[in-house]
């Protein structure tokens, strides 16, 4: 499977976002509680779906069960404007019941169909289903954090994640803390 440059960049940012949501400063896994907050604030986050979908898409983390791998591969190989229709993709995936309300909200918003396609594509890549197939074309995204047994082997292991977060925020126009 080949990732488009769009999804290649987005999947890397998305993996960092999920990783950032997963652990608190003490290394404790807080993903479930932070995802709940994202979902509770979904209405407030909706204006960001067109210009910063990576910050909103985690609300759908764990929401999709994928059925049509070739269609998803077509999606993640495309760029905006070349995506399949949401209705076509939606017919091939199963969505968790809690996510349906969020999806309906998103679809009523400007850019909602593209956002739902991006969210599904990012989750497909992150799920490992797409990541394993993309290994030859792109760096595989991290496995879903809630299923990932992670241990920090050294004191500076968290520094890499901190540096990545600093880099990401700097790319978004924020000043570096260090």
Write a structural description.
The protein has ten helices and two strands. α7 runs antiparallel to α8. Helix content is 54%, strand content 3%. The protein has 178 residues and is mostly helical. It has one domain.
The gist of it:
This protein has about 180 residues and is mostly helical.
Q: pLDDT under 50 segments (min length 5)?
A: 130-158
Number of strands: 2
Count of DSSP-assigned helices = 10
User: Can you tell me the number of structural domains?
Assistant: 1
The whole-angstrom Rg is 16 Å
Helix-strand pattern, N to C? HHHHEHHEHHHH
* Percent in helix: 40-55%
Apparent shape: globular
Terminal CA distance: 38 Å
Structural class: mainly alpha
Specify the biggest β-sheet.
Answer: 2 strands, antiparallel
Task: Output the strand order for the largest sheet.
Answer: 1-2
Mean pLDDT reading: 82
Strand content: under 5%
């Amino acid at each position: 499977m080949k990732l488009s440059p769009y999804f290649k960049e987005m999947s890397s940012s998305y993996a960092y976002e999920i990783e950032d949501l997963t652990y608190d400063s003490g290394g404790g896994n807080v993903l479930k509680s932070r995802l709940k907050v994202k979902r509770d604030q979904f209405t407030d986050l909706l204006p960001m779906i067109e210009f910063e979908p990576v910050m909103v898409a985690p609300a759908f983390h764990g929401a999709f069960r994928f059925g049509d791998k070739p269609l998803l591969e077509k999606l993640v190989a495309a760029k905006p404007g070349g995506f399949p229709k949401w209705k076509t993709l939606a017919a091939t995936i199963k969505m968790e019941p809690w996510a349906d309300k969020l999806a309906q909200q998103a679809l009523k918003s400007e850019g909602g169909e593209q956002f739902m396609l991006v969210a599904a594509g990012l989750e497909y890549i992150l799920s490992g289903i797409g990541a394993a197939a993309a290994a030859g074309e792109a760096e595989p995204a991290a496995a879903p954090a809630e299923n990932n047994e992670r241990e920090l082997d050294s004191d500076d292991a968290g520094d890499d994640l901190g540096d990545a977060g600093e880099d990401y925020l700097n790319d978004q126009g924020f000043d570096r803390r260090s």
